[in-house]
Every structure is written in C-alpha cells, then in structure tokens.
Amino acid sequence: MFLLVSSVFLVKFVFVKIIQRTSTILRHLVYLFVWCVITHSTGAFATLNLDNIERFTVVATPTLVNDNLASIAPQYRYDASNIALPLHVNDILVQSPSVTLNGQGGQIQNINIRGFSRWRIQSLIDGVPVISDRRAGSSIGFVPPSLIDSVQVSTGGTSTYLGSGAIGGAINLMFANRLRPTLRIGYDTNQSMQAYHYAGGGDTTDFMVSHRTANNGSDAKGNLLFDQFTQSTLFLRYNPTSSVNFKHSTGANKKASKNPVTSAWTLFSNNSDIGKSSSDFPERRVTEYPTNKHWIGKIQFEFNTTNTDIDADIWWHTSSLDTETLRPAQRINESNSDASDFGGSIRGNTLGSYTPSFLNEWNVDWQIQVRGRENVAINETEFAIDEVYSQSELQPDPQKQRDNHETLVFERQTLNASEYNIAGLLDTSRTLDKTTYAFGARVDWQHQRNQNHNQPNSQSSIQSLGQSLGQSGDQRIEQSSNAYATNLSGFVGIKHAVNRHFYSSLHLSTAFRNPSLVERFFSGETPRGSVLGNSGLRTEQATNIQGGLYFKKKAKANAVSAAVEVFHQRISNYIERRSIDENTITYRNLNSAVIRGITYALSWEPLNTSWRFNTAGAFISGKDASGTRIADIPPRHAEISAQYTYDDATLFGTLRYRASKTDIGDGERTLPDVYTLDVGANFSLSNNLSVALSVRNATNQHYYTTADDRAAFAQGKSIQGALTLLL
Q1: Considering the entire predicted model, what is its pTM?
Q2: Model confidence pLDDT, tens digit, residues 28-41
Q3: Are the beta carbons of 488 and 441 closer than 8 angstroms?
Q4: Cα–Cα distance between 662 and 237 in angstroms, integer?
Q5: Taking a C-beta distance cutoff of 8 angstroms, is the pair 512, 574 a contact?
Q6: Is residue 166 within 8 Å of residue 121, measured between CB atoms?
Q7: C-alpha span between 396 and 225 (Å, rounded)
C-alpha cells in the first residue's frame, strides 16, 4: 500500500512539474525517488514476516529490453571466446552481423548498427547509458575488454525502453556475475601494447584493476598510425548473496527485513595520450585526446510486497574529454568538454487493482524513468602558429610548438546546456497455444535549456544566415534558450512456433530522437569549420518493421541454430549537418530517409566431433527521399569462423569478407573489396594457468577501416598473447 501511495504521489508530482515546465524537474524527482527508496528499505518492508519465506539467491542477467519484447524479438549475445586479446570492446561487438565499425579509427572508434550510427544508437554499460556530445557518437573504448564478459545487441527501434536516440538499436556491455581472482598479462606486437589485469574479491564484493598502454601501430605497408593510448581502470562491486542483512525493531517485536540493495558497482577510467587514427595524420592534421576521464556507477534495489515485486535503480556518469588539434603551420585548437549524467527508474510487474480486465491473463510490466544532464559544457581555445613547421618532424609536439610560437586567437565557451527527461512505459505479452503476442507504449517528455548567454555568433548573424537558408528553400536557423518535446513510441509484435524447431516473428515499432544539445545550442569553431546550432530542429521519427525466421535444434552432441531477419526502417525529419558557405556549417532536417536490408547467422556443431562452425552476414542499403545515398551505410559483409577443441587446446579462425562500396554518401570514399583472416588458440596448461595466442590480419591486408573519407588504414598483421593465472 505504501508503495502504491508513493508511486501515485510520484506521478502526481511529475505531472505538476511538467505543467509548470520548470528546469528543476529532474532534480526534485531524484530527491523524491531516493526518499521513497530509503523509506521502503527502513519502514514498509520491516512489516514483512520473512520467517516462513524460502531464501534463495537469483542472479539476474541485465537486459536491453523487457521480457515482453524479447519474447517476440530475439536479443543477441556475444563473448570473446574466439579472441585472444581484444584491443577494444568493439572487437567483441563486430561478431554480430548487424554491427560494423564507423567513422575514424583509434581508441575512440565508434560503431554502426545496420546503417545507424552516431547519436542514432545507444551504448550502455550494465544498463547505464553512455552519452557523448561528439558528433561521432558515444565510444565505449574507455572500458577495458577484460572486464566485459559479453555484450548484448538489440536491433531496430527500441525507444519504448531506452528513449530518445535508440532509433537504430543499442548495445549493452555486461560484466560477469562474479569476477574470479585472476591475474592476466597480455601483449600485442603491432602497437607494443602491454596489458595488466588483476581481479579479486570475496562473497559479496569483487574488484578489478586494469592498466593498458600502447604505442602507435602501423598499417600493412609499415606506415605509422596515430592510435596510441594509455588506460588505467578501477572497478568495484557490491553484490550481496544473503537475503537478510539487517534488522528493524518495532516495539518488542523484531522483524527481519530483506536488504533492498541487490547490486552496486562503480567504474573509474582514466585515459590519456589517445591518438586519433586518421588519414589526415600527420601532414594535414594531428588530433590527440590528452585526457578522457569517466566515473560511472549504478545501484539496484528490489522490494518485495504481498502484491508485487518492485525493482529500482539509480545511476550516474560524469565524463571529461580534452581534445587538441594541430594543423601544421596554421593553428592549434583545444577544447574541453564536461558532462554530468544521472537518472533512475522504478518498475513492477503488475498494476494491481488498476489492471484493466482485458489484461488479466497477460504478463504486464510498467516502468517510470527519470534522466538528466547537467553542466554539459564545451570550452574552446585557438592559437595561431607563427612559424612554419618542419615537415621532417613526423610527430610534431603541439605543446612545444605552442609554447614558442603561439598567438592567442580566441578563448570562449561554445556550449553550456542542460537536459531533463521523464518517461512512463507499459508493456505486456501473452502466449496462446503456439503464438505469442506482445505490445508496449511509452510517453516521453524532455526539456533542453541553453545556459550559454555569451555565444560567439551574434543574433544578427544568425538571422542573416537563417534568411539565406530560407531563400534557398531549406529550414531556417532559429535560436532559443529552451526546447520542449513530448513523444510517443511503441511496438507490437507476434511470434509463431511453426514446430518444435522453427518459429517466425513479425515486429513493428516506432522510435524517436530529439536533437542533441550540440545540434541545438553549440556555436563555435571545430576542426571542420564554424558550426552553428539550430534550436528549431524537429525530432527525428522512425518506423521499423522487422520479420524473421529462426531455427534451433539441439541434441546431445549435435546443435544447429539459424536466423534470417529482414528489416525496413523509415526516418522522418532526418537531421544532417550541411554547409551554409565555405566556412560555416549548421544542422537541418531532411524530409526522410529509408534504410533496409537483411541479416543472417548460422551456427553448427556436427555430431560426434569437436568442431564448431559459424557464419553470418548482412546486406544493407540507405537512401534519402531524393534517392541519394546517405552516409554510414556499411558495404555488404560476411564471415565464417571455425573452432576445434582437442584435449586442453582450442583452435579458432575467422575469415571475413567486405564487399566494395562505390555508392557513397556525403563525407565518404569508395572502398575496394577485401578479405581478412584472424587465427588463434587457447591452451590450458593446468587447472589454474592458461595461455592464449592469436594473429590479427594474418594475411597483412591493406584496407581502410571504414568508408569515412578521413578514416585511416587498418593495422597490419599483429600477434597477441595473453597469460591468465587463476588465483
């Protein structure tokens, strides 16, 4: 009853604030949320009599979406079993036929999901969103691969669960349920990378310390790549196994109360001297990230009442990224971006007496989410170089050059903004005979606020630029201090079991993406020129339809699984960055764009053998309303991998094919086709000691990592080794 009253009060509070449209909505909601959590943990649950309750521990696997959507749209999971020493978490992700690399290379490399990238996909760490103000999108390179047990990939519009931005899909990095006490040492020949990993802990706590450092690598022809980095990480987690952890006294009666905290973790990551691997290096541009810091964490709660089970969580993520861009013999641009992201949710699996009669036989879940971004700021400085740089110096030292021959051009703040969001969602599913039905809906409200009152572009220049765009028939540029958005999204789907091995599914969803703070409010210089935000941008709206046919058969020594999925996604109000003149860029809405394609995957373990085979691939295309190719559409690709286990050794290899790309979008280059081969082996020397060896790009192919016109070549052949000792 207390939980119901608290929830009603929470909803009432929210809608009052929405009507008032105050900028403090999220802060108050978080205060209220924390108050509810504390009150529940110390009061309401003290009235439960746990003496007759069976005690057991259930370890839940975090998911991208609720079970109701997963019941009709499979969520895929990948691990690092076929990778000896991943350099990046992306090495695990690209095992999915839906995931490819995107943009330029290096440790801050981004990904693409079925033609969607940048701000159109969401990256999460154990359910915590990682939000970036870089146009390239969020990078998860600050997380050491050794910490990640597996990754989940969700394709298509998932705004019903993840809100704005998840119009193209999402990925979720997952930790192991328990970190075994482990010492691991690794080395990579191409970058001379050294990796050290130590994990330990007890019954209720575990931790991990990781340190990695890498020099600049080289491509297949021996040309230097600017992909150096240094990374130090600390991970701490509290994961209680006891169901009764504290007592609460009421008069003479003492009741045992369940600890509501089911998990709490935090991650500190300090990254420095990160090189941006780009074809501009070193003659035209040298871009380095001197520091990239992250502090991220999450606390999960579970409350059990006589009527329902309530789950809740609160999370936070503070980040800071410094960028230094040197244009030899021209100028140096420095920028510093900071952001504090936070949020929480409360969810349950029943509506109690408020459940409509027609849903009595359905599985019902509800959720309230709150999210905020504060102190989102970007500060920029530019220095002119007074003396021509020596062309013989392959890696110029920007700091040295600046100290001796610099002239300050400007120093200003180009972004200072905040964002607040609240959403409620409801989903349900039911299985009748061989058919499962599911649907869900979300209502989402957002307030963005521009707090920078000293932007470099004057109102007169904004008006003149807006008039010039209006004369050319494009959307006008607008500037406003506040932007509000209310969006609805949802899904409906069906899954039918043809027989015990085959089933099919059809899934229709809608999704949305509100313009980012950068697209709306940023105004300043970037390496690509002057950029002017447009607060009048409209929200992107997407409709996705996806159908699939799936097969799974598992016997004692023989297993086969296969999946074929076809998708068609239409995006209205597609936001793109376009040039106003030779030196000025802004954002505007296009009419629409369509992305469609097919993905497939097959896994086979032959009868009475030690072999395992996998193959996967994708065909994707994307055009705007005029028939012009849009950017970030990956070329056709396919791969086949094999794994053989003999005694205490496992051998593996993966052959990948990427087709040529001649139909390119804005900012892209044509690509020839390429085949690459990775091979490796894992050896168990004893119960506690194992060795892994692998060769990446074993045939030393020379190819660009992506179609981005500034992408660098991929690393040439490299050998990795890892020694793991269980303590």
Answers
A1: 0.82
A2: 434 444 444 333 44
A3: yes
A4: 48
A5: no
A6: yes
A7: 14
pLDDT at 405: 61
Q: Give the neighbor-by-neighbor strand order of the sheet with 169-175.
A: 76-79, 148-155, 169-175, 122-125, 128-130
Q: What is the Cα 84 distance to its own chain's centre? A: 23
Per-residue confidence (pLDDT) for residue 660, from 0 to 100: 94
* The pair of three-digit structure tokens given for residue 658, joined into one six-digit string: 């990427």
Residue 321 · residue 283 · CB < 8 Å: no
Is 453 a residue whose pLDDT tops 70?
no
The radius of gyration of the chain's CA atoms, rounded to the nearest angstrom, is 26
φ, ψ at 721 (rounded to 5°): -140, 145
User: Chain centroid to CA 324: how far?
Assistant: 24
Task: Please give the single-letter amino acid code of residue 233.
Answer: T
Distances (CA, A) of 499 to 429, 435, 504, 553: 20, 11, 10, 11
pLDDT of residue 353: 60
Tokens of 333: 């641009």
Cα separation values, 662 from 84, 580, 635, 711, Å: 34, 27, 9, 16
% of the chain residues with pLDDT over 70: 78
Give the Å distances, CA to CA, from 642 to 94, 260, 647, 653.
16, 45, 17, 6
Q: How far apart are CA 140 and CA 131, in angstroms?
A: 10
Please measure the distance between the N-terminal and C-terminal CA atoms of the chain and give it in whole angstroms. Answer: 48
Residue 433 pLDDT > 50, yes or no?
Answer: yes
Amino acid at 53: I
Residue type, 573: N
Q: Are 690 and 680 in contact (CB under 8 A)?
A: no
What pLDDT does 244 receive? 39
Question: Is the pLDDT at 472 greater than 60, yes or no?
Answer: no
For residue 475, pLDDT over 60 is answered with no
- The predicted pLDDT at position 207 comes to 94
Provide the residue type at 116 as one letter: F
Tell me which of 74-78, 337-341, 473-477, 650-654 is least confident: 473-477
Q: Which pLDDT tens digit goes with each residue over 224-261?
A: 999 999 999 999 999 886 433 333 334 444 444 467 88
**Residue 353 CB neighbour total at 10 angstroms:** 7
- Residue 28 tokens read as 């108050």
Name every residue whose Cβ is closer than 8 Å to that of residue 408 and which is 6 or more positions away in sequence: 381, 382, 383
**567, 596 in Cβ contact below 8 A?**
yes
Q: What are phi and psi of 92, to 5 degrees?
A: -80, -40
Residue 220 · residue 275 · CB < 8 Å: no
Q: Which two tokens stand for residue 235?
A: 């991970």
From CA 62, how far away is CA 125, in angstroms rounded?
10
| Interval 179-219: pLDDT, tens | 889 999 999 999 999 999 999 988 889 999 999 999 999 99
Grouping H, G, I as helix, E, B as strand and the rest as coil, residue 39 is: helix
| Complete edge-to-edge strand list for the sheet that includes strand 529-532 | 523-526, 529-532, 584-589, 575-579
The DSSP annotation for 399-419 comes to HHHHHHSEEEEEEEEEEEEEE
Going 41 to 42 to 44 to 48, the CA torsion angle's sign is positive
Q: Is the peptide bond before 634 cis (omega within 30 degrees of 0)?
A: no
